[in-house]
Amino acid sequence: MDRRAVALVAVALAAAVAVPFVAGQSEYVLDVLFLIFLYGAMATAWNLLGGFAGQVSFGHAAFLGIGAYTTAILTQIGVSLWLAVPAASLLAGLYSLVIGIPAFRLRGPYFSIATIGIGEATRLVALNWTSLTGGASGLTLSAAPPLTLQYFAALALCALTVALAAWIKRSRFGFALAAVRQDPDAAETLGVATTLVKTQALFLSACIIGVAGSVYALHYLFISPDSVFGFSTSIGLVIMPIVGGLGTVTGPLIGAVVYTFIREQLAATLANADLLAFGLLLIAIVVFEPRGILGIVDRVRRAARAKAAPAVQR
User: Fold this and answer.
1) For 77-84, which contacts have Cβ atoms below 8 Å and span 24 or more sequence positions?
2) 297 exposure class (CB count in 10 Å sphere: 0-12, 13-18, 19+)
3) 167-171, 235-239, 262-266: range with lowest mean pLDDT
4) Residues near 222 by Cβ (< 8 Å), separated by ≥ 6?
5) What is the spatial distance between Cα 33 and Cα 31, in angstroms, rounded to a whole number?
6) SS3 string of the chain?
7) What are the Cα distances from residue 262, in Å, to 100, 101, 103, 107?
8) Nearest Cα to 60, choosing from 32, 102, 100, 101?
9) Between the CA of residue 34 and those of 31, 172, 256, what are the distances in Å?
10) Which one is predicted more confidently, 247 or 305?
11) In whole angstroms, what is the distance from residue 176 CA to residue 192 CA?
12) Cβ 205 vs Cβ 83: under 8 Å
């Protein structure tokens, strides 16, 4: 990352930190930014597997749900958040190993289809295990931390996740993930342990989303199998990186901004209007610019440079 990029990141982070002090404690502004950072963290975590390694998962809501339910159950019996949140992250990570090792025997669309089944099976277990999860009635948490504290928690999680993604992309691990995405067979020929690499990416992704599940539960104070394990949640995690720029560092965060804006503007006006908008947006991106918004930005930048070049030569 060059100095200009570092400076931009520093300015953006400083602005985000200053928001609660400048916005006059506006709950709406903080709530929207909270969602952007929370979705941004989850989308970036999904991108470690789906973007960097090319393993498209439609079942990542399972890790959000495990994190949320672990936090809710532990706090209900008096466990401190300092223990509940790491436990939620660890359980989500362990669950990813349980389902990931057999699932990675499949490739391409077969893996993606398997993750749909895994996600739905996890939701059904949560729905029917009423003694632990409360079933369809869900679980209610007693009290939420102040919104400002929730905001900074989501901001910290997002910033750390994006920083981790940036480091991974330039590391040997990142190169191994890229090799798996491009050609798994060739990667194995070159000595890359493809199953291990994919499992490690899934574990990291699940641990981060497990923490996000904790933050989600503490924000909404109510969770149910449909709200945290639902297929629509998994779809959202797929949509955001694709819209912003699949396999990039900042693309998922850009996608989170678009995703949150559409949900905030359309969800309350017409039933499922946001889902229709997401579908149309995905079609447009796949048809016109598969690299997402960052691809559009790159195309505009190249066109501007090409237009400026003759003027410089003259």
Assistant:
1) 81/214, 81/218, 84/214
2) middle
3) 262-266
4) 138, 139, 140, 141
5) 6
6) CCHHHHHHHHHHHHHHHHHHHHCCCCHHHHHHHHHHHHHHHHHHHHHHHHCCCCCCCCCCHHHHHHHHHHHHHHHHCCCCHHHHHHHHHHHHHHHHHHHHHHHCCCCCHHHHHHHHHHHHHHHHHHHHCHHHHCHHHCEECCCCCCHHHHHHHHHHHHHHHHHHHHHHHCCHHHHHHHHHHHCHHHHHHCCCCHHHHHHHHHHHHHHHHHHHHHHHHHHHCEECHHHHHCHHHHHHHHHHHHHHCCCCCCHHHHHHHHHHHHHHHHCCCCCCHHHHHHHHHHHHHHHHCCCHHHHHHHHHHHHHHHHHHHHHHC
7) 32, 36, 33, 33
8) 100
9) 5, 33, 11
10) 247
11) 7
12) no
pLDDT at res. 5 = 64
Measured CA distances, 87 to 44, 66, 125, 306 (Å): 21, 10, 20, 53
Report the pLDDT value the prediction gives residue 265, as an integer from 0 to 100: 81
**Across the strands, what pairs with 223?**
139
- Residues 107-114, mean pLDDT to the nearest whole number: 94
Mean pLDDT of 272-296: 84
Average pLDDT of span 170-191: 94
Q: For the chain, what's the residue count?
A: 314
314 pLDDT above the threshold of 60:
no
Indicate the pTM of the whole model: 0.93
- What is the token pair recorded at 8? 């931009």
Helix axes 61-76, 109-128, angle to 10 degrees: 30
Q: Mind listing the pLDDT tens digit for each residue in 46-90?
A: 999 999 999 999 999 999 999 999 999 999 999 999 999 999 999
- Compute the distance between CA of residue 159 and CA of residue 64 in angstroms, rounded to an integer: 18
